[in-house]
DNA sequence: AAAACATTTCGATAATACTAGAAATATATT
DNA sequence: AATATATTTCTAGTATTATCGAAATGTTTT
């Protein structure tokens, strides 16, 4: 993962609405949550939510799977783990220097 | 920490230049790195760097301490730990549901 | 107090992001 | 095939962010 990819992930997590969506999806686990459910829970317009979702997808933080006419959103755990690893490894506190 | 504060931290880390600065400061440890050194290492203009630094300060991710005419920037570890904790706790992978 | 050094603030431009109503697309049901 | 449901794309206005040269500020040395 390049620094740009990590920065992109942070950037997309750096908005309260998107962070709420992401947090909600992590809680939901494997199957995820439909766009409509997110819309109802967060109370924001379709189009606005749709843009936020595609931002998260573009950063590789979440993915979407269709089931009939419902689109489920779910977390890309590999990406989440990469981000956590970056903070722990690349940004580790090294007092031994 | 509110969701807005966490989002703000992610937002400011969400830019390649700022993320490089932050990473550099974490590596540097307690004393930090001067603005001038960052400028030389990253090769970006004073004013641009200064804005990025104040963004990181505004998110509480770094702080500045003057020593003579040199301003040192250093990481606010509490904030870094909060961000890591958020990802691990609030965004934990819970397969037990 | 003048000159040198370190950093920020000003000012202005360009680029990107946020928001959301309305129209379009895709799928399912009757 | 018509209707209902779920979601995205279009369009457009507003707001925020990024960039950086030049001027200003604060600090030290001479």
Question: Could you characterize the architecture of this molecule?
Answer:
Two copies of one chain form a homodimer. The first copy, chain A, is of the alpha+beta class. Chain A is built from five helices and three strands; from the N terminus they run ααβααββα. Chain A has helices at 3-13, 16-28, 35-42, 46-58, 77-90; strands at 33-34, 62-67, 70-75. The first copy, chain A, has a three-stranded antiparallel beta sheet with strand order 1-3-2. In chain A, a hairpin with a 2-residue loop joins strand 2 (62-67) and strand 3 (70-75). The longest helix of chain A has 14 residues, at 77-90. The model of chain A has no long low-confidence stretch (mean pLDDT 93). Chains A and B meet through helix 1, helix 2 and helix 5 of A and helix 1, helix 2 and helix 5 of B. The first copy, chain A, binds a DNA duplex (30 and 30 nucleotides) through residues 15, 17, 34-36, 39, 44-55, 66, 68-71.
Structure at a glance:
By secondary structure, chain A is an alpha+beta fold. Helices cover 61% and strands 14% of the residues of chain A.
Oligomer: homodimer
Strand line-up in the sheet with most strands of chain A = 1-3-2
Number of helices of chain A: 5
Radius of gyration of chain A: 15 Å
What is the string of helix and strand elements of chain A?
HHEHHEEH
- Poorly predicted runs of chain A are none
Helix percent of chain A reads 55-70%
Proportion of strand residues of chain A: 5-15%
Major sheet of chain A: 3 strands, antiparallel
Distance between the termini of chain A: 26 Å
Structural class of chain A: alpha+beta
Q: What's the average pLDDT of chain A?
A: 93
């Amino acid at each position: 993962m390049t620094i740009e990819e990590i920065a992109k992930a942070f950037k997309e997590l750096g908005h309260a609405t998107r962070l709420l969506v992401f947090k909600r999806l992590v809680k939901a686990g494997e199957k995820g949550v439909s766009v409509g459910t997110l819309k109802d829970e967060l109370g924001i317009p379709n189009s606005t939510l749709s843009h936020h979702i595609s931002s998260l997808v573009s950063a590789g933080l979440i993915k979407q799977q269709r089931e009939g006419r419902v689109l489920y959103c779910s977390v890309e755990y590999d990406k989440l783990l990469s981000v956590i690893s970056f903070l722990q490894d690349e940004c580790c506190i090294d007092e031994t220097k």
